Amino acid sequence: MSRRLRHILQALALLFIGAFLFSTGPSVQAQSASTPRPSSASIRTPDFDESVQWYQDKLGFRLLGSQSLVPGRRAVMERSGFLLEINEADHILPSEPDTTATVQVTKAPVVSVLVPDVDKEIERLRKAGVEVLQNPEDELDGRFRTAQIRDNGRHRIELREPIDENGFNAMGR
Known about the structure:
Residues 1-30 form the signal peptide. The protein is α/β, with parallel strands linked by helices. It contains 3 helices and 8 strands; from the N terminus they run αβαββββαβββ. The chain has helices spanning 3-23, 48-59, 118-127, and strands spanning 40-45, 62-69, 72-79, 82-88, 109-114, 132-138, 144-150, 156-162. β6 (132-138) and β7 form a beta hairpin. Residues 18-36 and 95-103 have low confidence and may be disordered.
């Protein structure tokens, strides 16, 4: 088995494990995590190469593997244990209200990434030319400081900085 194929299979196994953990609810989440969080997400884009490069350059994801399939290409990327699957959509379908197969600009975040300092991350991304949709602000319950950006054109990305009841950031800020 080639090294590349082995990496792809390992990434897919991690993606399935992450999907299982997320679907079974918070009781299966890591015991050290006080707040359950998703461990994987999947997006579709017609700009496959551009999207893979964007997530590497702008958000620091690393490419675990990619493959070409009959309907398009797929890449599995990782950042701090969070897996992101990027699937190539060969075209954008006409928008229909209840259709999930269309690829269009999202109105709600599709990916939520934990960061140690939302304010610094937004400042860095803004300088890199990333579109900021929501400036950093504390959530009403005070557990997270959040901001939103748009990836290379279609998907909203939420940046989340965890804060406990004493104002402590578990990620090190």
